[in-house]
């Protein structure tokens, strides 16, 4: 069965596990646990210290995705289309085709609802699988508050979700969406919702892997650190330094 069909079929059966990766080594560790791996433009802050995802280029996404591709054997691989690479259907199609052909990913993710309806339809008409992204949209956000508090915003998000489904997206990320709205959206559409800061009611969950392992120094309500990898690295490097200083490494077996 096609990986995308398999993912959609998980709705109402079992939770969909998603994480981000920006390189081969992390991708190869998380692949066996995930249904979907996203090469997210969150690499802007996580890897490059950029204050906004707006600075991410198509070339950066392609190079990181090529690396990630080498680490994935079973998960669905989706790549974020960066800011200003899908301003109209023609531009979106040209860039999405470039991402797919150069990275061999399974599909692309775009941020937005009604405004990008025609763009998404064009990609899908051209056989490019698209994942939607609603709620907090980092590429255009004016603030980082959660979405769906006000009645008007709630209505708009629900209608955007239905529109994205109509356009043909295979799934959508709901980022920082109020719990009851995430529940309503999830119940109202037949494709899976993937939450980040959007409650347990979504069909699946995504986190930035660097946040989950404690490598990224940010904290937010929706993040849970499952380990402190910084401590593991510190301990290992401390031991290495000690052994090198005391001539305990390299030993004969490490030498030629
Ligand atoms: O860029 C990213 O990593 C994302 C996820 C947080 C959903 O869009």
Low-confidence stretches at least 5 residues in length (pLDDT < 50)? none
Helical content stands at 40-55%
Name the ligand types.
3-methyl-2-oxobutanoic acid
Strand order of the largest sheet: 1-2-3-4-5-6-7-8
Gross geometry: globular
Structural class per helix/strand content?
Answer: alpha/beta
Share of β-strand residues: 5-15%
Radius of gyration: 20 Å
Major beta sheet, specifics?
Answer: 8 strands, parallel, barrel
Number of helices: 10
Q: Taking all residues together, what is the mean pLDDT?
A: 97
What is the chain-wise order of helices and strands? HEHEHHEHEHEHEHEEHH
Overall number of strands: 8
């Amino acid at each position: 069965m096609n990986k995308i069909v398999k993912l959609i079929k998980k709705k109402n059966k079992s939770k969909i596990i998603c994480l981000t990766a920006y390189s081969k080594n992390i991708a190869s560790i998380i692949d066996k646990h995930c249904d979907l791996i996203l090469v997210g433009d969150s690499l802007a802050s996580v890897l490059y210290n950029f204050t906004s995802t707006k600075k991410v280029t198509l070339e950066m996404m392609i190079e990181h995705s090529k690396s990630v591709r080498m680490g994935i054997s079973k998960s669905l691989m989706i790549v974020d289309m960066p800011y200003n690479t899908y301003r109209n259907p023609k531009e979106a199609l040209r860039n999405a085709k470039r991402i797919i052909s150069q990275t061999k990913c399974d599909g692309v993710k775009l941020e937005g609802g009604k405004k990008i309806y025609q763009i998404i339809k064009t990609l899908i008409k051209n056989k490019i699988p698209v994942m939607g992204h609603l709620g907090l949209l980092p590429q255009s956000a004016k603030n980082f508050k959660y979405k769906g508090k006000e009645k008007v915003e709630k209505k708009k998000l629900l209608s955007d979700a239905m529109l994205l489904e109509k356009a043909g997206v295979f799934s959508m990320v709901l980022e920082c969406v109020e719990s009851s709205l995430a529940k309503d959206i999830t119940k109202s559409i037949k494709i899976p919702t993937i939450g980040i800061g959007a409650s347990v009611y979504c069909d699946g969950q995504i986190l930035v892997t660097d946040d989950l392992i404690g490598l990224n120094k940010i904290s937010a309500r929706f993040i849970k650190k499952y380990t402190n990898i910084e401590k593991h690295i510190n301990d290992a490097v401390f031991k290495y330094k000690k052994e090198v200083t005391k001539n305990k490494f390299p030993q004969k077996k490490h030498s030629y």
